[in-house]
Structure formats: structure tokens, C-alpha cells
Amino acid sequence: xxxxxxxxxxxxxxxxxxxxxxxxxxxxxxxxxxxxxxxxxxxxxxxxxxxxxxxxxxxxxxxxxxxxxxxxxxxxxxxxxxxxxxxxxxxxxxxxxxxxxxxxxxxxxxxxxxxxxxxxxxxxxxxxxxxxxxxxxxxxxxxxxxxxxxxxxxxxxxxxxxxxxxxxxxxxxxxxxxxxxxxxxxxxxxxxxxxxxxxxxxxxxxxxxxxxxxxxxxxxxxxxxxxxxxxxxxxxxxxxxx
Length: 242
Hints:
Number of strands: 8
CATH topology: TIM Barrel
Structural class: alpha/beta
Radius of gyration: 17 Å
Distance between the termini: 37 Å
Number of helices: 10
């Protein structure tokens, strides 16, 4: 038991962003399981944690629309039964919980809605003062996954067609030039088609920051294809729920 304490302290000292950078450099795949607070039974958190894939490295919490207080209940439940990092993946500023380990501070760069480019971020500032929550500036790019995603509906923006690879690469590189720490390529929850591996490959050839990929990944083959193309982290949500 005495040996576990220094290990836990060391784990807490290593930032989530640094773990992403290290994984990118060493080509060590990271796997995050995305939890929608509105679909999660906090009382069964320990059972959920025991059922996680062995490769799971992080837990993401968030959704396009979430009932008030639901995120906080999920974060508390997860923190009580696992040492895995809990990262917020919020649809709006109301989902911010300082008890999580980190926050993907996302700007929807693929859409034209200023509310999700900078508006929500300004509203979030008061919730980010005087707490330990690690803030990770993230360029969020919504890519067509073969259906109208909740993100599209909530933000009022259209996903970029998958064949527009050059445009997607330009947005990703703009994100890096703007100082984002990572880029999130998202096909949307329940996507019929995941982000094409060629998109990931081309984006990875243009930028030097970590790439997170999510939406529509339902098989081991799709998971490996994303990693092989250059994804540092893959996020699975609906497929694990199913």
C-alpha cells in the first residue's frame, strides 16, 4: 500500500495534455470511453468501471445536451471508484465540473456559429477560476458521419463532407497556428461512418499536435485503422453503450 501512494502522486503530477504529447511521440495508442451523463446510472459506476475495455486510458464525460447537475453526479461517481483520468467533453459551459481532472476547452472551428467558437468559452471563464481543473485548448472539427448529429442540431452548423480533405487539413493547421494543444476530429455520436483514415493521415502529416478521433468507431479494425493513420487517442461512446 505504501508504494501505491507515491505512484498516485506521480500520476497526478503528470498533466493530461502531457500524457497526450508523450503518447503521440511514443506512438502509444490512447483509448477514451465517452459517457453521456443523461444515459449513465451513477449508482452503477463501479460495475461500469469493471466492464471497461482493458485498453481504456481515459474517461470522457459530456454530451451535446445534458440535464443540470447530471455531469457533476457522474464525475463524482467515477472519481469514487477509479483512478483513470476523468476529462470533461462538454456541450456547453454549464457542464463544467472542477472535480474532474481536465477539460477539453473546445472551439468549434468547422462551424460558422460564433457562440461555439468563442461565446461559450467566455461564459466558461468564471467556472474555471480558482480550481485545479486542467484546461486543454482544443480545435474541434465536425466531419460528416452519414447522419445529422446532435452537435449539428445544437450548434446550428453543418459537418464538413469527408471528401473535403484539404479543407479539413487547413482547419486543423489553423487550429495549431491559433495555439490549440490538440485537434479533435469528430464524426458525431452514433455516426454511420467514422472519420476516414485518409483524413486522419493527411491531418497528421500537416500538424504536430495530438489528434483525437471520435464518432462511429464500432470495431477493432476501425480502431486500429485510426491509430495507424495517426490518431493519438480514439474515443468510443455509442458502441460501448451498445
